[in-house]
C-alpha cells in the first residue's frame, strides 16, 4: 500500500541577513549590500507514514516542524529531495491535495467569529463543492459525533474554547479528508476539554481509518492519541519509533510512592531523590541506572512495614527532554 506521507532527503533553507563586522562604514554598507547566508531549516529529512497511522511530530522550537508542515501542505517548495502526500507532489498539486487533507490549528480559526458554526459549515460545503445532500448528511453525522446540536446556531464568539475546538475539528472533516494535520489542537483548553478532544480524535481516526499527524508541546496529546513519535532537531531526524520505545531508550528514572507504618522514611541512597514527603507517605525519584529499584524497596522495608506502594515511569516530557539533551551533546544522530 502506498504511504500516506513519504519524504526522501528533503531539504529547505532560508537566506538570513547577517550584519557586517567592522566599523561604521562597513555597517552602513550592509544597508545597501546586505550580507546573507543560507540557514537550513530542513536538512535531508526522510521518513514515511502509513495510511491510518497516528503520528506525533515534535521537536524543540526552531527544529523545523513548521517548515516541514508547510512543505507537506504545498505552501513551500523544497530546495532538494522528494515529498509525496497521499500520492500528490504538494508544491505542484496543491489544489488537488487540499481536497484530501484537513487542518486544525489551535491558535487559528477557520470559523467566522461573528457567525454560528452552521454558516461556516455551509460555506465550506461550497468551497469544497460537496453535493448538497451529501453535505447535509455529513453535517448531521458530525453534529451527532461531536455533540454540536446546541452549538450549531450559536455565534462562535459566544462559544467556550473547548466548544469552538470541537466545531473546528468537525469543520476540518466536512469534506471527508483522508489525512488530518493537527497543530496544537488542545492549546489553552482545560483538563476536561482536552480529554474530550483527544477522545474524539482517536475515535474518528479509528472509525474512518484517517491518518493523523499531530504537533503539540503537550505530551498528553501524544500519549492519548498517537502510537508513534517522530522527533526532529535542527532540521534532521532525531527519533522515529513508538512512544513505548522512546520511553524504554531514554527512561532512566522511576517514581515510587511508599505508604508506610513509620511516619517518615529516611532513604539516603545514591541516585534517590525525595520528591515529596508527608505523614506516612514518601514519594521518591529513583535513577535506576545508579541504584536498582529493588535495592530501594529493600531499604524501605528494613525501616518500616509498607502498607502500599506505587511505581510509575517518569512523565513523558522528562523523557523527551532527555532525548533533546542527548542530541545537544551529539549522542543521537
Give a summary of the structure in a few sentences.
The chain has 11 helices and 13 strands. It starts with a strand and ends in a 5-residue tail after the last helix.
Question: What order do the helices and strands come in, and which of them pair?
Answer:
Layout: E1 5-18, H1 24-32, E2 35-49, E3 54-58, H2 65-73, E4 80-85, H3 94-98, E5 101-105, H4 117-127, H5 132-145, H6 161-172, E6 179-183, H7 191-208, E7 211-215, H8 219-225, E8 228-233, E9 236-242, H9 243-250, E10 253-260, E11 272-278, E12 281-287, H10 293-303, E13 306-313, H11 316-328
Parallel strand pairs: 3-7, 3-8, 5-6, 6-7
Antiparallel strand pairs: 1-2, 1-4, 8-9, 10-12, 10-13, 11-12
Helix pairs in contact: 6-7
Can you walk me through this structure?
The chain is an alpha/beta fold. Helices cover 35% and strands 29% of the residues. Strands 5-6-7-3-8-9 form a 6-stranded mixed β-sheet, sandwiched between helices. A 4-stranded antiparallel β-sheet has the order 11-12-10-13, covered by helices on one side. The mean pLDDT is 87.
Amino acid at each position: 500500500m502506498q504511504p500516506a506521507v513519504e519524504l526522501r532527503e528533503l531539504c529547505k533553507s532560508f537566506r538570513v541577513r547577517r550584519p557586517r563586522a567592522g566599523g561604521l562604514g562597513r555597517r552602513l554598507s550592509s544597508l545597501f549590500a546586505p550580507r546573507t547566508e543560507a540557514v537550513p531549516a530542513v536538512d535531508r529529512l526522510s521518513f514515511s507514514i502509513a495510511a491510518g497511522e497516528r503520528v506525533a511530530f515534535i521537536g524543540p522550537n526552531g527544529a523545523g516542524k513548521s517548515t516541514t508542515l508547510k512543505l507537506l501542505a504545498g505552501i513551500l517548495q523544497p530546495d532538494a529531495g522528494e515529498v509525496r502526500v497521499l500520492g500528490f507532489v504538494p508544491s505542484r498539486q496543491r489544489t488537488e491535495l487540499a481536497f484530501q487533507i484537513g487542518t486544525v490549528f489551535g491558535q487559528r480559526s477557520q470559523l467566522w467569529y461573528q457567525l454560528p458554526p452552521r454558516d461556516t459549515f455551509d460555506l465550506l460545503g461550497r468551497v469544497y463543492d460537496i453535493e448538497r445532500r451529501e453535505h447535509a448528511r455529513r453535517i448531521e453525522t458530525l453534529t451527532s459525533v461531536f455533540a454540536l446540536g446546541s452549538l450549531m446556531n450559536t455565534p462562535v464568539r459566544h462559544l467556550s474554547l473547548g466548544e469552538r475546538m470541537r466545531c473546528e475539528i468537525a469543520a476540518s472533516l466536512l469534506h471527508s479528508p483522508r489525512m488530518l494535520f493537527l497543530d496544537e489542537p488542545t492549546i489553552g483548553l482545560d483538563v476536561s476539554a482536552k480529554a474530550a478532544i483527544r477522545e474524539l480524535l482517536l475515535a474518528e481516526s479509528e472509525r474512518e481509518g484517517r491518518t493523523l499527524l499531530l504537533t503539540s508541546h503537550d505530551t498528553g496529546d501524544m500519549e492519548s492519541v498517537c502510537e508513534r513519535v517522530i522527533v526532529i532537531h535542527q532540521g534532521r531526524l532525531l527519533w522515529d519509533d513508538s512512544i513505548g520505545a522512546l520511553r524504554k531508550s531514554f527512561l532512566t528514572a522511576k517514581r515510587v510512592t511508599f505508604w508506610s507504618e513509620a511516619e517518615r522514611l529516611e532513604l539516603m541512597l545514591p541516585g534517590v531523590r525525595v520528591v515529596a514527603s508527608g505523614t506516612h507517605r514518601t514519594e521518591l525519584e529513583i535513577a535506576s541506572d545508579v541504584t536498582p529499584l529493588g535495592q530501594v524497596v529493600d531499604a524501605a522495608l528494613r525501616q518500616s512495614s509498607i502498607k502500599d506502594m506505587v511505581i510509575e515511569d517518569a512523565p513523558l516530557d522528562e523523557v523527551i527532554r532527555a532525548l533533546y539533551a542527548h542530541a545537544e551533546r551529539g549522542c543521537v544522530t
